[in-house]
Amino acid sequence: MSINIPKNTKNIKKIKIKKINLDIVRQKGLFDEGCYESACNDICCEYGCDVDLASLKLIYKHRKQIEPLIKAKIEDCFQSGLKADDDYIGGGWRETEVREKDQRCMFHLHKESGCSLFYLVGKKGLPEQLIPTICKTYPITWNRGDLFVDRPLRQICKCREIIPKDRWIPSLYETQKKYLKRVFDIPAKEIEKVEKALKKEKALAAPRIKAVKEKMKKAAARAAVATAKKKATPSRPKKKSASKAKARKRA
Ligand code: SF4
Ligand code: SF4
User: Fold this and answer.
1) Which of 132, 190, 197, 248 could connect to 51 by a Cys-Cys bridge, CB 3.0–4.6 Å?
2) pLDDT at 206
């Protein structure tokens, strides 16, 4: 089945960004294994997403691989028709449907955690553009030239996890950077602004991390001395308990 593309659709290759909100540098990112090791149960997939026209075309092209993973037909995966919009790659978007059984986007894997599109890109080598932009860059999002953090962030999201105080956790900008560069057209001065802010954040964090590490080192040294002392002290024979002594007297 072919896609009915509106006449006013422009073939957008990258989304234009004019201004970046520095919150993307201040917010902790999807560190370590990111979403893969999170206990979030893919909560951000509960409302579905907007699929760019460029992704939509690939979804139709690779439908034979997608449909068995989601146990549904591609035609049943959308709740809106295609709308022309030059704020999306390809020049348009369609909103996905949410599955009734588990309240997850229709492209979420059937009875398993994870997204079928991420799976096919990561494990089966399908083109990265199969994944909608909004899902690749999340929780960073955009709107008509602004790039920012999509708040409120769920408490259970990896980027809100409580972290050890002795380490630097990369910001959202750092963990999502590879995607940001591929999908957005960002002016050089905005990138410079972000890099400068990142440098400042790291410089502010460095003394705090150093102090925490020193404190932990000292505590470990104190614990080692205490253990060594305990081992070196010869153990004294145990005193007989008073009750036992009294019992012997009575006997
Ligand atoms: S396309 Fe995948 S990542 Fe995006 S909302 Fe749907 S299931 Fe989640
Ligand atoms: S972005 Fe946050 S809520 Fe969404 S899958 Fe990753 S860790 Fe979970």
Assistant:
1) 132
2) 80
Residue nearest to atom 1 of ligand 1 (CA): 107
Which of 41, 115, 138, 155 should be mutated for ligand 2, with most atoms under 8 A from CB? 138
The pLDDT of residue 73 is above 50: yes
- Residue 96: which residues within 8 A CB-CB, separation 6 or more? 48, 49, 50, 51, 77, 78, 79, 105, 106, 107
In this predicted structure, what is the pLDDT of residue 238? 56
CA distance 15 to 37: 30
Distance, CA of 183 to CA of 164 (rounded, Å): 32
The predicted pLDDT at position 116 comes to 98
Predicted local confidence at residue 243, as pLDDT: 47
Nearest CA to ligand 2 atom 6: 35
Determine whether the shortest distance from the Cβ of 96 to ligand 1 is under 6 A.
Answer: yes
- The CA distance from 176 to 233, in Å, is 55
Span from the CA of 109 to the centroid of ligand 2 (angstroms): 15
Residue scoring higher pLDDT (231 or 78): 78
